[in-house]
Amino acid sequence: MTSLSSGEAGSESRSLFNTVQILGSRPPQQVEHLQERGLHIPDTARAQLVLRRVGLYRLKSFLLPYKTPAGYVPGTSFADAERLMKLDEALRLHVFGAMQTVEVGVRQAIVQWMLERHGLRWYADPVHFHEPNEYLIIPSS
Questions:
Q1: For residue 68, what are the β-bridge partners?
Q2: What burial letters (b/e) apply to 91-112, b meaning 16+ CB within 10 Å?
Q3: pTM of this structure
């Protein structure tokens, strides 16, 4: 494990402090910060709207592929991050759609298997459950 010199440690803590300051600032200052780091933002009003909707922290996660120690890869634009956000949203919708199909299929396979072996009201018979009274709700009188 390497230790940081006092100058490096001070620089690192200032960098962390600046990051926290920027994350807590308003969208106009956030846009300015991104531009200072080399991000091309032709429509600052649109960028501010996006930042109000998704937040700087989330937006920066989509800029990670373009990150360099000095800022962002030359030519990187706000639109690049927006395209990645749209791709992420589309991918998420496809995955969730597939998960729903799998969930319904597995549930139906279990129900069908139990139905064929134990009859129509198999779910009402405590013998089919490991601890049948664990989730039993007894109405109070």
A1: 71
A2: eeeeeeeeeeeeeeeeeeeeee
A3: 0.62
